[in-house]
Design a protein that fits this description.
It is a single chain. The protein is built from 6 helices and 13 strands. The mean pLDDT is about 95. It is about 30% helix and about 30% strand. Strands 9-8-7-12-10-13-11 form a 7-stranded parallel β-sheet, sandwiched between helices. It starts with a strand and ends with a helix.
């Protein structure tokens, strides 16, 4: 936990919070944060600052907080991502959040197994938990938007034109002739397919919307490897 992420419900006075559960246990057992110890803190969708432990019991930690600083700027990238395998999904979602991506659109494609859409990992409370963990890691407070789009063609034809307007539109596609650009200036919409990539029909739909197919080299990569590699290259981290 690089950031103690607070919610409005934690406040019982203007600058005093009480936390319990996972965050309390982490302070108590991992950070061993006792009375007087300063910590980095932030309010969900709000400002960053500091907190100091005032008191602790086995069930609660009470802290004073001073939140005065803006969160880091968001990454200027919208991610279109074919729904990954459930075992990789949670860690991948956390990782994308640490990059500062604020809009993540999960897509159904021909090579996404239908059973993935029944995964308990898509429940709103589970998604929320993974996003919070990513924000804590990145010392960020602004919660990303996660949209589920199980119908590929209607999304690409009806929603995507407006969503991707005025952005550089890129499609990660092994075997394409163009290398992925690096350190891109301006807003980007990046589409990343499932294991095996997008099928030709999907590539055609995306290219018809102005997406340019790009590659990361000759070696096929798993989605959980390709996503951070592409984001790191585009955002020049």
């Amino acid at each position: 936990m690089n950031l103690l992420l607070l919610s409005p419900e934690d406040f019982f006075a203007p600058e005093i919070v009480r936390i319990s559960g996972r965050r309390h246990r982490h302070l108590l057992e991992i950070l061993r944060a006792g009375p007087g110890q300063p910590l980095r803190a932030g309010l969900l969708n709000g400002k960053l600052g500091s907190a100091q432990v005032v008191a602790q019991t086995p069930e609660l930690t009470t802290l004073s907080v001073a939140l005065t600083d803006p969160p880091p700027p968001p990454a200027p990238l919208t991610l279109l991502l074919a729904l990954p395998r459930p075992k990789a999904f949670r860690r991948l979602l956390q990782g994308v959040t640490t990059f500062g991506i604020k809009r993540i659109i999960l897509l159904n494609t021909a090579r996404v197994e239908k059973s993935f859409w029944q995964s308990p990992f898509l429940a709103q409370d589970v998604l929320h938990e993974q996003l919070l963990l990513g924000l804590e890691q990145a010392r960020d407070t602004i919660l990303p938007e996660v949209l589920l789009r199980p119908r590929f063609r209607p999304f690409v034809e009806d929603e995507l034109p407006q969503l991707a307007a005025d952005t550089l539109r890129l499609l990660a596609h092994p075997g394409s002739s163009l290398p992925c650009p690096s350190a891109v200036a301006g807003a980007v919409t990046m589409a990343i397919g499932p294991e095996g990539g997008f099928v030709p029909f999907e590539v055609e739909l995306l290219t018809a919307q102005g997406f340019a197919a790009v590659h990361l080299g000759a070696r096929p990569l798993r989605v959980e490897t390709a996503v951070p590699a592409l984001l790191g290259r585009l955002l020049a981290l």
